Amino acid sequence: MIVTDGFTGNVALKTGEGTAGLVRDFLRDAFSKTLLSKVAALMAKASLGRFARRIDPRRVNGGVFLGLNGTVVKSHGSADATGISSAIKLAYTLAQSNFTDRLAARVALAPGHAETQRGRAVTRRSAIRGVGHYLPENIVSNAKLAETVDTSDEWIKGRTGIERRHFAAEGQTTSDLAVRAAQAALDDAGLKVDDIDAIVLATSTADLTFPSAATMVQAALGMTKGFAFDLQAVCAGFIYALNMSDALILSGKASRILVIGAETFSRIMDWEDRTTCVLFGDGAGAVVLEAVEGAGTSDDRGILSTDLHSDGQFKDILYVDGGVSTGTSGYLRMQGKEVFRHAIEKLAQTAHTALDRAGLSADDVDWIVPHQANLRIISGTAKKMGVPMERVVVTVQDHGNTSAASIPLALSVAKADGKLKTGDLIVIEAIGGGLAWGSAVLRW
Ligand code: UT7
Questions:
Q1: How far is the CA of 383 from the centre of ligand 1 (A)?
Q2: Atom 30 of ligand 1 has which residue's CA nearest to it?
Q3: pTM, to two decimals
Q4: pLDDT digits over 325-338, tens only?
């Protein structure tokens, strides 16, 4: 099918009709010139008749008007009985096949596409309907850590802003934390697990090599339909998971997704390495992302824009020195200063890009909810963006760096504290191993 505006459509139609008429007249002329050609025409009568019918514009008469809640077929003013009957046949076929409804459904599935329904423009968006988190019970203060690690509360607090972190209990796995956060998000959304189409779990510390922690969460929640998978982009994991879930929703492949960030980084700490083991904590956060209708403007609720990057050149400045194919599980290794240097620059840049894409600026931002790695990175990024710290959600003091869990955890805590109001414009941004980084702009 070719969809055009009225003018272009008419030009194309007239060109088609004119060409068909020209060919018909030319053949009629050629076959009536001599006795021989008349005999040839007689012999080819059946084929010529078929050809004439095939190119007869009256047999395809009727232009379909789109964008109306129903089928309208416009016929030629000069159409004869054959033309009118063709137009009626077309209208009948379109009505019989629910053409308008099928077309509307296909348009609604198109990424970010505006459909016209009941006379108003509608854009599919994915919005956060519920949020929740879970933190293991075991809270370890800097002072407690200093009993076994050569460090001090003063150093950790001064260099990172971290005051305490939670550690998973023995035997408690990433999926255990994820299930608790997911259930909290479902409760907050007022939904049951049957209302969910998919689970996307961002983690670098899954329980087992396989199956995915996401399928473990699926089983624990009693969800028997849909699909579930893990996604690994380290500290940027939640941004990546939200981005992919947004794409699934906008493409119509899912309508409600549990997007989870969950980690047990305590399991990959080298307790002999004081430069890293004081920085991380365990936890999980989750959101229910669902399809909503918007007007296609930056006033819409939901995700307005996203921005993702990775650059494997920097894989050696933050990594785990083990994995399945090395036969060890390994420990986290980091050149902290190098990561720090990249972080502020790249985070401010990605946030600006996402805001630009949404047609907004830093002045429009109500809250930055950043990845919680280091208070100095958080404040440095906010400063570079020109957003005051009163508009930044900070939880690093209580959670440490929980990698992929840090943003959904911070969102959940901020909501519980009454900070996030419907309509607030939120920027989330994160960077981590890879390097992988990115951001999203969303309206609460
Ligand atoms: O989420 C993924 C992304 N990760 C991050 O964003 C982390 C980014 N990096 C950072 O946050 C910071 O670089 C750190 C917090 C890791 C380190 O801060 P820094 O200001 O870059 O410190 P540094 O590595 O330069 O270390 C300064 C000093 C060193 O001592 P000397 O050589 O100056 O005598 C370290 O040995 O601090 C010492 N030090 C410690 N002292 C007490 C390092 N770790 C500790 C410690 N306790 N835990």
A1: 21
A2: 275
A3: 0.77
A4: 999 999 999 999 99
